Every structure is written in structure tokens, then in C-alpha cells.
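Design request, C-alpha cells follow.
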């Protein structure tokens, strides 16, 4: 039942070592920055950045303070690139120049000159030597996209010398990325690199052959990474939104400049939109599965306003491995999938059969999500089963993470098969039953979860039970404490009714009663990793198994 058996693990380890050798060889050549056919002499278009602009951030940067990645760096009169940076995440944000979008809030000549001086400092200090955080491929991709998108601010009234330095540095960065992109590990960074190269090819008036090649390579990566149901193959809902932020401006730039749009680009964008709507709660927030953290409502709305596909959200994303149950204003989203490859499991969460519940304008039951700016320890803690609204045996995750020197924290064991049964009841309600084998190897049991919701969306019935691998009920518990956890959103107040019942009350007065027929319902302290402002305290409900199954119910109060 191993997700990655020993032989496959050795094969992956060797392949990763070879990939790193090829990558090192590609970028260690003396000509890796200075040579190549890609030459940028002028920028002819600035693709639109759809992300929200914050005038406060712009004002802070103009005053020498950089508020990035949850930290603030006060530079005084010094360049930020000469100082010790507060964190690795801060460094990536600083060198990625995504913060340039905020400078659009005040495009006076003086402010543009100040912004230009920061870019010039980077070119002088980091432009000539491809090393360190500044030249991580994902950071380079983001910097290329940011420089192109905000070139009207950076190049406003620029003197000829700076213009030449700017375009020369862009050329170097694109050539560097071209050398590296084929050896990047699979996932969003490789696709972002393809987007950056394609964007540079049309925004900087590259030769027609370079434009066509960049489009072909982008098409190939889009087809590989965006699944037929529109979800990204990392299974992270937020990845789909991040892709739209880059693909929509790229698509429009192709059209505005009269280039042939890569054949896959428009169909892929049309596929992604239904997946984004699928993961969107009734509150407007995005679900927190497999590495997602809370998105700003303004960011989500800025991409959704370009949605031309319309229609109701799908009931399931079969390729991504998710189900959506809905009734009235109530939405339940359930993770019924597994990582699509061993390498992708390095960022996946052990949350199989976890679910989230929203109603009206509120999220009630959630997963803890992934922290936006925290360190590696907390990121790995957020991946555990205990950080998800599902069952956990002995605080052991359903997927075991093994940190490999080359491969990173991949899932060495975990669910290999998830069975799903979906039915519509005679009353118009919806029923989902799913089971996974992630605990078979260690404890000899299968976890099965059943969720029912009525057509009106005001009554939910749930059951979690342990089965033998052959599907028969087990008479005994597995020798370790079995706990079902339900993480409650920090905005929700929990009011105790009795030992088996609590009331979940939202700030606007909407409420649900959570109850169990037998046993004891505990309310314990919790943490919410994914808040936009950082990690927050929260609470969770816990039900300890006293037999092979538990039942739980939710009732909405009108």
C-alpha cells in the first residue's frame, strides 16, 4: 500500500540528482548570462497586473520601509539590498518585485524616480551574478513579470543609460530562465517560468521564431499541469487563482499586439474558471486544501470579473479529487483525492476526507490551511492530518512525510486508493460516502466518511467509521486513540449547550448546532494557519471514538 515504495524512491532520488546536475551545468557556464539569442532592446507593452494595489504600502516604501511577507524592514537611507533581510519569505518577495504594483498608486515623477532607483540598485548589486535567493527560478519569473507589468512606472522619464541597463538585465534574466526551465521540478514554478518567458517574448518584441517557440512550450506545460476538470495538478485551489493572475494579462497582450494566441491558452483559462468557482465558499472565500491560504477578497474578485464561462459550479472535480455538496445557501467541500505524483506530494497535505462547511456569508468548519509567511516547521505542521477536519488515529497522519535530501518532504506512505459513492436521495438531498486506505498499513483499518445534506441545506448528518480492508466493519479499535476533529473558523463563537451539543454562532448572528447522539464532545484550543494577517488562535471540536463509528449532526437555525 506504500505511496512510494523503496524501489520507486531510489529511482526518484537518482532522477532528482541527475536533474540537479544538469541544472548546475546549465547555469555554471560562463556564458549563461551574457550569451543567447534573446535580446530585449525596448519594452513595447506592459501587461496588466490584476492584483490589488495598496496605497499604504506604496507610501511606506517611498519612506524607506518595506512591509513584505508579514515583516517590516526599515532601510532609512540605505538600499534594502545592502541589509540583512528579516526572513527567507521576505527576501523572495523583495527580489521578486511584486510590490511594484503598489507604486501605481502614486505615479508622480518623484515617486517613479525613487522606484527606478531601487530597481537600479538591484541591477548593480545582483544583476551580474546569478546566485542566491535573488536568482531562484521562481523569484526570477516573478521579477520578469513584475518588471514588464510595471515598466510604465519604472521607465517614466528614465534616461537612456538606465533604459539600456534595464533592458539588458531583463534579457539576462530571460536567458537564464530559458536555460533552467527544462530542469525545474514539476509544479507551478515551472509553469510560471514558461509564462514569464512567453510574456517577455511578446512584451519586448522578440523575433517571431522566439515568440512561437515560447508559445509552444507554454502550451505544452499548460496541458501538463491544468487537468481536464480545470484544477491544477498540485490540487491546491489557490494555484488556480495564481495562474489566472498571470494568464489573463498574457492572453490579452497576445490579442492586443496581434500575435497568434497559443492554441491551448484560451481553452485552459476557460477550464480554470469553473474550478475556481467550485472551490469558492458561499462566503466568497477559497477553500483551504493542499497548501492554500486565505486569499484577499479583492484579489479573488479581480480575476472572477473576467469569467466568461458562467454556469453553476460543478458537483465534483474528478481529476483533482474533490466533491461539492450544496443545498440552499450551504456548501460542503470534501477532499477525496491523493497526490498525483510523488514529487507533487512534497507540498500536498495529509487531509484525505477532510471537509469544509460554509453557509450564507460565513465559514463555519474549515481546515487549518497553510501559513502565508511562516517558517518550514509550521508549514510542515499544517500538512498533518490533525490540522484538517477529518479523522486521525493516534495523532498519526494518514500520509507519512519523509524528508529526503534531494526530494524534500515527500509522502513516503499514504492513501493509494479512495473509493467514492455519490447519490441523490428521494427527498432531493445529497449523499457522499468515501473511504481511504491510508491507515491500513499501520493500523489495519480503512476510514470511511459519509455526509448527507438535505435539499434545503439546513440539516447535515455525518458518520465516520473504521472498516477492515475487505470492507467489513471492525469490532475493535486499532489500539490507539481515534479522534475526529472539526476545526472552527476563528470568527465563529462556540457556545456550549451540554456535553454532546454546542452552538456555532457567526458575527452576523447566523448559527448552527453541532451535536452527537452518544459520547462526549470536547472543545479545545486550536490554531488557524491561513489567516491573511498571520497565524490566529481558534478552537476545534473533538470527538473521541468509543466504538468503531461515530455519528454527528449539524442543524441550521433560521
Amino acid at each position: 500500500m506504500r505511496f512510494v515504495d523503496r524501489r520507486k524512491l531510489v529511482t526518484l532520488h537518482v532522477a532528482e540528482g541527475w536533474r540537479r546536475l544538469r541544472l548546475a551545468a546549465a547555469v555554471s557556464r560562463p556564458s549563461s548570462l551574457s550569451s543567447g539569442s534573446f535580446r530585449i532592446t525596448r519594452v513595447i507593452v506592459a501587461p496588466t497586473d490584476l492584483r490589488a494595489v495598496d496605497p499604504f504600502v506604496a507610501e511606506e516604501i517611498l519612506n524607506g520601509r518595506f512591509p513584505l511577507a508579514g515583516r517590516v524592514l526599515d532601510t532609512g537611507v540605505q538600499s534594502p539590498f545592502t541589509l540583512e533581510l528579516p526572513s527567507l519569505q521576505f527576501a523572495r518577495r523583495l527580489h521578486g518585485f511584486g510590490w511594484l504594483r503598489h507604486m501605481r498608486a502614486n505615479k508622480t515623477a518623484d515617486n517613479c524616480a525613487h522606484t527606478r532607483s531601487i530597481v537600479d540598485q538591484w541591477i548593480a548589486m545582483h544583476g551580474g551574478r546569478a546566485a542566491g535567493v535573488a536568482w531562484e527560478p521562481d523569484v526570477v519569473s516573478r521579477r520578469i513579470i513584475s518588471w514588464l507589468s510595471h515598466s510604465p512606472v519604472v521607465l517614466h522619464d528614465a534616461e537612456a543609460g538606465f533604459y539600456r541597463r534595464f533592458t539588458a538585465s531583463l534579457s539576462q534574466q530571460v536567458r537564464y530562465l530559458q536555460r533552467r526551465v527544462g530542469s525545474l521540478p514539476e509544479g507551478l514554478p515551472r509553469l510560471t517560468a514558461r509564462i514569464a518567458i512567453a510574456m517577455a517574448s511578446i512584451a519586448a518584441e522578440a523575433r517571431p521564431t522566439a515568440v512561437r517557440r515560447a508559445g509552444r512550450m507554454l502550451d505544452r506545460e499548460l496541458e501538463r499541469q491544468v487537468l481536464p476538470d480545470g484544477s491544477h495538478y498540485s490540487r491546491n485551489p489557490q494555484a488556480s487563482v495564481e495562474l489566472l493572475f498571470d494568464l489573463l494579462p498574457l492572453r490579452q497582450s497576445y490579442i492586443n499586439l496581434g500575435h497568434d494566441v497559443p492554441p491551448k491558452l484560451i481553452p485552459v483559462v476557460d477550464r480554470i474558471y469553473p474550478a475556481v468557482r467550485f472551490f469558492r465558499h458561499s462566503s466568497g472565500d477559497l477553500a483551504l486544501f493542499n497548501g492554500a491560504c486565505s486569499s484577499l477578497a479583492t484579489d479573488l474578485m479581480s480575476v472572477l470579473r473576467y469569467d466568461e464561462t458562467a454556469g453553476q459550479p460543478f458537483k465534483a472535480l474528478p481529476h483533482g479529487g474533490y466533491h461539492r455538496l450544496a443545498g440552499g445557501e450551504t456548501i460542503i467541500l470534501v477532499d477525496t483525492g491523493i497526490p498525483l505524483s510523488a514529487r507533487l506530494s512534497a507540498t500536498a497535505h495529509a487531509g484525505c476526507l477532510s471537509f469544509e462547511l460554509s453557509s450564507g456569508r460565513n465559514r463555519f468548519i474549515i481546515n487549518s490551511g497553510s501559513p502565508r509567511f511562516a517558517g518550514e516547521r509550521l508549514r510542515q505542521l499544517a500538512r498533518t492530518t490533525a490540522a484538517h477536519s477529518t479523522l486521525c488515529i493516534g495523532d498519526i497522519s494518514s500520509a507519512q512525510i519523509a524528508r529526503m535530501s534531494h526530494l524534500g518532504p515527500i509522502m513516503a506512505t499514504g492513501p493509494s486508493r479512495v473509493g467514492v459513492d455519490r447519490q441523490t436521495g428521494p427527498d432531493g438531498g445529497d449523499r457522499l460516502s468515501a473511504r481511504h486506505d491510508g491507515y491500513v498499513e499501520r493500523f489495519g483499518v480503512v476510514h470511511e466518511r459519509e455526509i448527507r445534506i438535505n435539499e434545503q441545506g439546513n440539516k447535515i448528518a455525518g458518520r465516520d467509521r473504521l472498516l477492515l480492508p475487505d470492507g467489513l466493519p471492525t469490532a475493535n479499535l486499532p489500539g490507539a486513540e481515534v479522534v475526529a476533529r472539526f476545526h472552527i473558523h476563528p470568527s465563529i463563537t462556540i457556545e456550549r449547550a451540554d456535553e454532546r451539543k454546542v452552538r456555532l454562532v457567526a458575527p452576523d448572528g447566523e448559527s448552527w448546532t453541532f451535536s452527537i447522539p452518544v459520547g462526549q464532545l470536547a472543545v479545545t484550543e486550536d490554531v488557524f494557519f491561513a489567516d491573511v494577517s498571520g497565524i490566529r488562535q481558534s478552537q476545534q471540536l473533538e470527538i473521541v471514538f468509543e466504538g468503531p463509528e461515530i455519528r454527528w449532526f449539524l442543524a441550521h437555525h433560521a
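Comment from the thread starter after seeing the answer: thanks! DSSP finds 14 helices and 21 strands in the chain.
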